[in-house]
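Fold these two proteins, one after the other.
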Amino acid sequence: MHLRSLPMALFIVLVVCLSCLILFSLWNRRHAKGKLPPGPTPLPIIGNILQLDIKDIAKSLSILAKDYGPVFTVHFGMKPTVVLCGYEAVKEALIDRAEEFSGRGSYPVIDHIFQGLGMIVFWGNVLGLIRSPCDPTFLLSCVPCNVIVSVIFRNRFDYGDEKFHSLIHYFHENFRLVSTPWIQLYNFFPSLHYFPGSHNELFKNIANQKKFIMEKVKEHQESLDINNPQDFIDYFLIKMEKEKHNKQSDFTMDNLIITIWDLFSAGTETTSTTMKYGLLLLLKHPEVSAKVQEEIERVIGRDRSPCMQDRSRMPYTDAVLHEIQRYINLLPINLPHTVTQDVKFREYIFPKGTEIMVSLTSLLYDEKEFPNPQKFDPGHFLDESGNFKKSDHFMAFSAGKQALINYSLINIFINSVLFKPPRVITEK
């Protein structure tokens, strides 16, 4: 009986091996017309997954860049992705040739939910938060969230509103979940959708958020005055009505719901997390806090509200804000891009649709641009005279069109935290 089963076992092994070879051949043929940069040799089906630390992909890519240079290819599963590291390569792609590299890359765990609708997807990296006797997490989440709420829903929430609490809780949970190793694996192998895992919790959270948003949209539909729109939803609904016969229109109810979710998810958690770590860094470096407070007292004082014109007269505070974002490295890997056409990039050829991954860590922790990058030092953004020094390497979120998001984040950070009464940042 044992001898009879042996040929069958060998047959199964041969079938599996042959299937892998066929899949690998099809995989290579699919990208044969391009000339992608070299990289670590991938295995059939799983690609380079065994050579990457899914808990810290950014670090793995930095290590690979030392062997393969600033432009190399990594296979996430069967999908080849070109990785760009260092200022020169990133600038050449995202700034000098922005249109060619402006395609939106896939992020399977979110694509499954939103089916390509909305404006953005968020890929965060959760840093270990040091616990304080006074945890300002909730309040720091309320501030940016309510700013966005006022634009989208017209009215702000009371901080005691239970629905508001639930909304913010979901943002915290989503931010944590998308940073887990399981979600990273899901993005490499979307077929994991059929297995139990944290992706199901993420899907449930976002479904509840979409339900909340839909309730608000219905309220707006009932009270809509087309001659007197009050907020983002009103304007969107009016545009929907005007284009209701256009089957190609992007102004649909599904897109409205998901766009609102995009605005919330992109603005709330990133801003509040930056503020949390900003306060922790100021507490850890009281000498920096003292200089910030002195500048605020001298330029603004206590008898008036700050204005944007004050920013140019506060170089040290501006430098501190930039250094906080550089140091915490909130988004170590940029949102995935694709090339919109066949692109000749340096000595390589990227076929249309090739995914591009940008290591922002390689810019923010560049030792030539920021000496001793592991140290928190506002001097990284100050010249010898104490004036603010702009750095082209500062791409805390991205470059090109995405720079607007970064600029908005800095402005919210300024108005939400450092321009509050100075006692807050020095009180023990």
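Now the second one:
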Amino acid sequence: MDDESLLGGRYRLGARLGGGGMADVYRAVDTRLDREVAVKLFRSGTDDDGRRRFAEEARILGGLNHPGLVAVHDADAVRGELYLVMELVEGRTLADVSAAGPLPPGRVAELGRQLADVLAYVHGSGIVHRDVKPSNVLVSHEGRVYLTDFGISRLSDAVGRMTSSGVVVGTAGYMAPEQVRGVGVSYPADVYALGLVLLECATGQVEYPGSGAEAAVARLARSPHIPPELPEPLNRTLREMTADDPEERPTARRCADLLGGEATETIPVVPATQPATPEPTRVQPVPAAPAGRRWPWAVAAGCAALLLVVLAVYLSLPQPATGPALPPVSGPPGVARLPDDLTNLERLVRG
């Protein structure tokens, strides 16, 4: 095949992988580098607004670098054709995955963690996606998710309520309430849309179905229904992400932490308790007895004092020394006294 039959003299188009309102995506081969790529080819006759979207998406994606974003390799306009050459992701869209039925809560939380991490990076670069929905999420065969289609994304300081043609941007089924009301749109709108995407994955149903106007207005009449049986932290996180007031929604980074189980609650600091200084012991005075009952107490106290004095005097007296009993002294000294001593000893022995 000669170079003239190649897109841009370089890319050989293959099977169509999918498409949207303004472009189709094809599997292709980069003949110069001999690798497979995905080519997003805008349809012929794209109007000026479409061309601006092409240029915006190429510029935004070309300046971003994150594992959850499809890398852009090339972009050009050839003979009136606009195309983006991107990394080829083998897998399906999240819309195809969720169409098969509800996903396990753990799987929903993991998909949400990855997508919230991508949004945190995008928001940190000052960009609002404005069209987060299942068909704009690719799920690879390995389970990694990629956020795509930045065609209507805007820098946060340039986001308006409408496009230049006066049309509110976004997909009706996933718009945040402030988008429907036509007020300022910023990062919380992406968080709200992601909350609806995850809710759809968990229930297997679109929360706000119907035509564009019907789906858009429905969220102004009721809040999303979060099934109470969904476990934590998924249940709580979805309720916070889909709060009507943008100020009450968590940031994308906070969502990633909550869904990944890495968030910690703030525990109020309790000042250390100072050890209490012991108060001096106070001896409570004994109340005085009534006048009529004082004399018995006085007599008893006097007797007790007298006994103590007697006992002290007795203990202070010298006690007589005790020694072994000796036979009484009798008779004259010497040998003449021996008979009497023997008599006394015999008496003592006999008792």
